[in-house]
Write a structure and sequence with these properties.
It contains ten helices and nine strands. It is of the alpha/beta class. The longest helix is centred in the middle third of the chain and has 18 residues. It starts with a helix and ends in a 7-residue tail after the last helix.
Length: about 250
């Protein structure tokens, strides 16, 4: 009876996720190792990867507007691949993003990949407030972690407390949530592997943040939806209009 109940729950979960109910032949340690090695080569392999045990999508995002199937595999849209490839190729990237194209998902999960598969990384995530930055980490990074296959969670554990600092135990890397004003202070005199500034046009200190971050960071990723009237939006228009590192979506 317990086994039948477990099978029923698994079938219901698969239906809820919009996935096939067939599963693979069971754990294969060599196959799992090959998958881990492939995922570690490039973030796109990770984002669009499948569980070798079941063939199901590895990364599940969420769409709160879809009441029937809110959890969805990370989509292999060309513009998302372009974002990922540009993050890998450029030290500085500014992205002008329409809404609902999953650009934030692509950028933050690429940062998550760096922390999972590269040693001793320190990435900072900046929003106008620290609570907003922590919300992104919960909604996207923590969401992905908790929906990974159990064996992947065990191979790539992430300690998610305190809420403003995720620690990747295998690589001893960290992802930190910071507020706009805290980011400016923390950038000066410190060293980070990279900085993701989300909705940079809405952050009045955006210009100062970039100036402070440039000497200390390996990568700067700044992204925004359109807005007018703030110092951040003015500087965003200057950068997005003239920077050779611009990547529009």
């Amino acid at each position: 009876m317990p086994r039948r109940s477990a099978e029923r729950r698994a079938a219901l979960k698969a239906a809820y996720l919009g996935l096939e109910t067939e599963v693979g032949s069971g754990p294969d340690l060599e196959r799992r190792q090959r998958s881990l090695e492939r995922w570690a080569i490039h973030p796109w392999n990770w984002l669009t990867g499948t569980d070798p045990d079941t063939g199901r999508a590895l990364i599940l995002t969420k769409d709160e507007s879809d009441i029937h199937a809110p959890l969805k595999p990370f989509p292999s849209y060309p513009h998302l691949r372009a974002i990922v490839e540009t993050i890998m190729a450029k030290d500085m990237l500014f992205i002008e993003k329409p809404r609902q194209v999953m650009a934030t998902w692509g950028a933050i999960l690429t940062v998550d990949w760096f922390c999972r598969f590269r040693p001793s990384q320190l990435w900072l995530l900046s929003k106008s407030t620290q609570d907003e930055a922590k919300q992104i980490m919960r909604d996207k990074v923590q969401h992905v972690q908790t929906h990974l296959p159990k064996w992947v969670q065990e191979e790539l554990p992430v300690r998610m407390k305190p809420a403003d600092r995720f620690t990747y135990e295998v690589t001893v890397s960290q992802l930190m949530a910071v507020a706009e004003n805290a980011a400016e202070r923390e950038f000066r005199g410190n060293t980070a592997s990279g900085i993701l500034i989300d909705e940079c046009a809405y952050q009045d200190s955006f210009r100062e943040m970039v100036a402070a971050a440039s000497p200390m960071s390996g990568r700067i990723i700044a992204m925004t939806t359109a807005t007018l009237g703030s110092p951040g939006s003015q500087y965003s228009r200057e950068i997005l209009g003239y920077s050779r590192h611009y990547a529009g979506t």
